[in-house]
Amino acid sequence: MIRVLIADDEAMMRAGVRAILESDTEIEVVFEAADGHEAIAGAQRHRPDVAVLDIRMPRLDGLAAASEIAATVPATRVVMLTTFGEDEYIERALGGGALGFLLKAADPRELIAGVRVVSEGGAYLSPDIARRVIAPYRDGDRLRSAKAREAIAALTDRERDVLRLLAAGASNAEIGAQLHLVEGTVKGYVSAILVKLEVRNRVEAAVLAHRAGIVTVG
């Protein structure tokens, strides 16, 4: 069972998100919060697997709450669910430790998929967000692309296989199934990849993979 915390200042939105998530029999919403402070307290008390946070909330916004949750409850992985997809929000969310960024206007199935992938240690961006994150690297920065290819060249063949799947949004379990590896071995490969590429998390590794051209966004 995937245990989820929801934070949004609109009660109707919380009810809608709960209904979508709990349509999946393997997801349970364990706490609802109306602002960032409540989200932090709820995460510390209930230790959910995933916290789904709105960005714009009173008293303390979702971006600040995401950073605090990532720092104090690292086992709780954060997904941002927002109406606002401004580049500044995306950068702050991912830099603050969020592993998912979804738009409220997206297909509800994306929310379930994002929570599932992030709960298993993966990273998930709405396709529109992924294209915007990757575009600056895909559309013209040859120097950065060359540096990315050089960094990835230092990986072993198996590490590159893992990175391709990671960058495509696969969870550790899905990577293991495709490469016939146990999940613990996949985690070891992911850790080694982050160290070799000198990146902080899976999202940054995925960006580097896209920048190098070893995987593409559909």
From TrEMBL:
Modified-residue entries (4-aspartylphosphate), positions: D54
Keywords: DNA-binding, Phosphoprotein, Transcription, Transcription regulation
Domain of life: Bacteria
Cited InterPro entries: CheY-like_superfamily, NreC/VraR/RcsB-like_REC, Sig_transdc_resp-reg_C-effctor, Sig_transdc_resp-reg_receiver, Tscrpt_reg_LuxR_C, WalR-like
Domain annotation HTH luxR-type: ranges: 148-213
Record domain Response regulatory: where: 3-119
CDD domains: LuxR_C_like, REC_NarL-like
Protein name, entry field: Response regulator
The organism's taxonomic lineage, starting at the top: Bacteria, Bacillati, Actinomycetota, Actinomycetes, Micrococcales
